[in-house]
TrEMBL record:
Species this chain originates from: Methylobacterium indicum
Transmembrane residue ranges: none
The name this protein goes by in its record: Carbonic anhydrase
Cofactor: Zn(2+)
Tagged with keyword Ion transport: no
Alphabetical list of CDD domains matching this protein: beta_CA_cladeB (cd00884)
Catalytic activity: hydrogencarbonate + H(+) = CO2 + H2O
Superkingdom of the source species: Bacteria
């Protein structure tokens, strides 16, 4: 705690004075974040640091395992953050960001690790589909490190699927107002692996590359548009 207090003192005396106008503007104008980032609560993974985002630029919610429960199963903090970000803040991008060496993913691979933490064990069930994919669809002979890495990636994709069940997200996607992103931050290398929805795989993001996306904002779509109304069909 001494280090935390010392850090705040340094911020208040050395950082805030030069940023005073920024914070005053954010209070006056309100927040207009560029994206919602759903990341792991792991203390080694800081979305604002990774992206070098300033105050007011990202709306961030963090939890164990960067989990997004399906809409119908749990009304909680993640659900509220998603709904608020899309409907109140009008974010146009949502990022689900996993990371290497994730303790939550280790808990998924070895359920006994969380047996004394029933709340954690229940929470991680939202990643069970990712565990099942890795256990059944990946080769049995891959080493533990690669298996853990694969699970972290598959978990990002599972959580993106869960995200699509949220009404605010489904509506924004159908209206062509939202883009979804799947990221994996490699702590040990500093690389950012980004899911390319068209290629169906994660790729290392390079500075000169265009940013791949999991699901791009598209032209507004309506499933019934192609068939017309019942009255129009009856008149044919």
């Amino acid at each position: 705690m001494d280090n935390i207090v010392q850090g705040f003192t340094q911020f208040r005396e050395q950082v805030f004075p030069s940023q005073r106008s920024v914070y005053q503007r954010l209070v006056h104008d309100g927040q207009k974040p560029k994206a919602l980032v759903i990341s792991c609560a792991d203390s080694r993974v800081v979305p604002e640091l990774i992206t070098q985002a300033g105050p007011g630029e990202l709306f961030v919610t963090r939890n164990v395992g960067n989990i997004v429960p399906p809409f119908a199963t749990m009304m909680g903090g993640v659900t509220a953050a998603v709904e608020y970000a899309v409907m109140a803040l009008n974010v146009r991008d949502i990022v689900v960001c996993g990371h290497s060496d994730c303790g939550a993913m280790k808990g998924l691979l070895t359920p006994g690790l969380a047996e004394k933490m029933p709340s954690v064990a229940a929470w991680l069930r939202h990643g069970e589909a990712a565990r099942k994919i890795v256990c059944d669809a990946y080769p049995n002979d891959i080493d533990d490190k690669r298996r853990l890495h694969a699970l972290a990636m598959e978990n990002v994709l599972v959580q993106l699927n869960h995200l699509r069940t949220h009404p605010a997200v489904a509506s924004a996607l159908a209206s062509g107002q939202l883009t979804l992103h799947g990221w994996l931050f490699e702590i040990e290398t500093g690389h950012l692996l980004v899911y390319d929805g068209e290629a169906g795989q994660f790729v290392v993001l390079a500075e000169e590359d265009a940013l791949p996306v999991a699901e791009a904002a598209a032209a507004p779509r309506l499933a019934a548009a192609a068939v017309g109304s019942p009255a129009a069909r009856a008149a044919e």
